[in-house]
Amino acid sequence: MHIAIVEDDINMRKSLEIALGEYKEFTISSYKSAIDALKKLDNSVDLIVTDITMPGMDGIEFIKKLDAKYDIIVITGNATLNRAIESVRLGVKDFLTKPFEIETLVEAIKRHVRIKVKTQASTQTGGISKGSDENSGFIASSKELEKALNIAAKAAKTDASILLLGESGVGKELFAHYVHNHSPRVKNPFVAINMAAIPENLLESELFGYEKGAFTDATSEKKGHFEIAQGGTLFLDEIAEMPLSLQAKLLRVLQERMIMRVGGTKGISIDVRIVSATNADIKKKIKEGLFREDLYYRLNTIPIEIAPLRNRKEEILPICETTLKRVCAKYGLEERCFSSEATEALMSYDWPGNVRELISVVERAAILSDAPAISSQDLFLESRSWL
Q: Within this chain, do residues 319 and 298 fall inside the same structural domain, yes or no?
């Protein structure tokens, strides 16, 4: 693997050359500036390790000039959240803060290689698999999904708030699990709450808990979701449906990192990473006065757009095959396959309900089909075209 080091500090540059050069699988070249590197980089380079703060041309401008031709790991002694976010949006594979152990950089390089190999393999196999532990259910089989997963993987390493945006059924909760499972909080709880599923008069106590005697039926104290998720990740699904009356309280909690139970008098410190999701046009809700703009900016540090399934067509058949095998095994059905007509119908349908709808259609067809080969009629897609 050919690694190019771009670092203006001669001591740091030489140290990295020597340390990485001890690994037989690495071939190292180095450059004292971004301008020098741009003149000499060629197609033999597999990965660039670059500083950000450099004279002449800084690392961010350098990355923009490379125009996604190379995979990049950033190292910097002047880390800020804004720079990390900018790097993520430019497609950087990792972001390390100086000083760091050489083993940390080597692990970042090897992790990148593993992900790249897995991604290349998944382009052939594709789909979403519930059994994939490393990727928390995803097999990156489309450019759109890979792009979103790449941002999620880097965002996971920070505590920055993430807002997942996408239509119903695209897999926003799966993304939330992915972020948690790839974060330093992975050994602590992942707690999810759907804002649209809980009545307004109960939502506050569900989020923040309550003290004994807070209301008629409060015969004992109860922890809310924030306390249950302590040290871990709290997933706020359908955040745009949160009542305005609670949005101010949530904003205060996010600012002060402290909650107060319903009926309580003492604040409780919380250490929770927030991931939110919505399928609504949240900016429209802000204009209509239905969602607080200040809360939106607090939740939207790193937005991740999840494309609808109709824009990820190459995932459809692999998801179908995976689901079909799972359903047949679960219910002891004889092995089934899709006819050519069924395959064509699956690929031509728009899937307004996205992955959730696709899985539902395949499950039903597998159960109801009378023949080993599932026909287009078994899919009942025509009856769904009104949706």
A: no
pLDDT tens digit sequence for 40-68: 988 888 899 999 889 999 888 998 888 87
d(CA 76, CA 54): 10
Residues 6+ apart with CB under 8 A from 37: 4, 6, 31, 48, 50, 62
CA-CA distance, 164 to 276, in Å (whole number)?
A: 6
Tokens describing residue 100: 């760091």
Short-list 254, 248, 90, CA closest to 160: 254
Q: pLDDT tens digit string along 172-188?
A: 999 999 999 999 999 99
d(CA 40, CA 36): 7
Residue 335 within any structural domain of the chain: yes
Q: How far apart are CA 137 and CA 177, in angstroms?
A: 9
Distance in angstroms (rounded) separating the CA atoms of residues 366 and 372: 9
Domain count for the chain: 3
Helix axis angle for 354-368 and 316-331, nearest 10°, is 40
pLDDT tens digits, one per residue of 135-145: 446 654 688 98
Q: Which of 55-64, 311-320, 359-368 has the highest mean pLDDT?
A: 359-368
Give, in degrees to the nearest 5, the angle at Cα 181 between 150 and 272.
105
Q: Name the residue type at position 2.
A: H
> Stretch 62-75: mean pLDDT, rounded?
86
pTM over cut 0.70: no
pLDDT at 284: 96
Mark whether 173 and 274 lie in a shared domain: yes
Same domain, 113 and 214: no
- Please name the residues in contact with 26: beta carbons below 8 A apart, sequence gap of 6 or more: 1, 2, 3, 20, 109
Alpha-carbon distance of 301 to 134, in angstroms, equals 25
| Residue range of the domain that includes 172 | 159-305
Specify the 3-state DSSP secondary structure of 54.
Answer: coil
279 and 185 both lie in a single domain:
yes
* Distance between CA atoms of residues 297 and 77, nearest Å: 27
Q: What is the DSSP letter of 262?
A: B
Structural domain includes residue 344: yes
**Alpha carbon distance 207, 260 (integer Å):** 10
The structure tokens listed for 27 are 């071939």
Q: Are 317 and 347 in contact (CB under 8 A)?
A: yes
CB of 189 closer than 8 Å to CB of 234: no
pLDDT of residue 80: 60
